[in-house]
Amino acid sequence: MRPFRPYTPDQVSLLPASPREWLPEGHLALFVNDLVDELDLSAILSTYETMERRGNLPYHPRMLIKLLIFGYCVGITSSRKIERATYQDLAFRYLSADQHPDHDSIAAFRQRHLAHLALLFVQILKLCQKAGLVSLGHVALDGTKILANASKHKAMSYERLQKIVGRCTLAARQKSERELAEEVARLLDVARRTDEAEDAEFGKGVRGDELPKDLINRQDRLAKIRAAKAELEAEAKERATAQAEAAKAKCDRREETERATGKKARGPAPKAPVDPSLAVPDPKAQRNFTDPQSRIMPTRGGFEQCYNAQAVVDEKNQIIIAAAVTDQPNDVRQLVPMATLACQSAGRAPVELSADAGYFSSNAVGDPALDEIALFVAVERHVHDRIPDPPSQPADTPSQEPASRVIDRMRDKLRSPEGQAAYKKRKAIIEPVFGQIKQGRGLRRFSVRGLGAVSAEWQLICLTHNILKLFRAAHAPV
Hints:
- By secondary structure, the protein is of the alpha/beta class.
- It has three domains: 19-114, no CATH class; 123-150 and 292-474; 153-288, no CATH class.
- The chain is 50% helix and 10% strand.
- The longest helix is centred in the middle third of the chain and has 44 residues, at 218-261.
- It is globular.
- 29% of the residues are buried.
């Protein structure tokens, strides 16, 4: 028989091996390790100066940051999976220096320092710029819906909330209580099925994202419903108040113009759509009990509980230069804030910016804050080669150019050969980035809840996208 190479899996090493030798040269984990060692983590490290010295020593923040960044790079965001990987995966084991923080420690660290981790986005962007990966010649803006860490089935409409807590006759109140009991029974059944599934996956007694305990109790659930109803009503009054103030400001400007010109302004005077004291939420307005700040939004797969994640991407190497999250299902108000954020993050304004019709409004494209940028924003969506009517625009103010003129100028600009060439870049620049994040790395759902935490996690997702671009550029064949 032909001899084989020696194989002794239980052989003790006579000399200690370097952990770096566990991985091949050029491995992503080695790159992440060296990169994090160069980052300024003083904002995180300073929080440990006032920490109590009793108890076990904490894990080193650099190690936990490396685990989280590498996890997001390869599409592993679950703290349980990261803990398991420190035992089973050589890359994670190398980054943890053969330590094994439990999933509670990893989750608590992420929760505590998520906002600080998001601040690393600009540091990574600066490294990408220094490496020559960013040109700021043409950038594209777009948004993508990412699932919230909440089920759409744990939401109620205002109509439903009002029906349950409304003051009515005793018979109707008793009926509402029966409906509430049926709702609680349904939710308990959902929780039971969730428990059974997670017991099979994680073991008996370990719970996941099932029904919150305070909703199981009938009185607590009724309190939650009342609170959700009150929040929706407060939002409706706040929105109506803002509209009334905007209408009053327009009336004041209108009167000032009439006094200055001595002529009566054309058209009816602006007025608020509804008296703020009488404002009520839309009957279909929903509130989710698990993550109240998330919204039900249209997606390709139907309506889901989501957030709207925004990104501005540079054309040269698809580096994300700005990232933010909104709870608004449409993009019409995002052009100015995202373009401004891109200028701040990159240190200067890009030459050109393209965006689809969802971002167009005459006020946005005519905003003085964007004067330095050549905008290519579609005026309307083309359906089967038919150009529909232009979108409705906000009323013009005396200091603004008429909306119709802004629309015509942008339409002419996009129909020119230069405009067509510039706008064609948009889809090829930004849509592959969302594909790489959602399809390539499987990051389709946020791990945290609340707009602030979700915004920070989106920055973490985007900075790891840029790290992957930096890594591939550093190891690209010459």
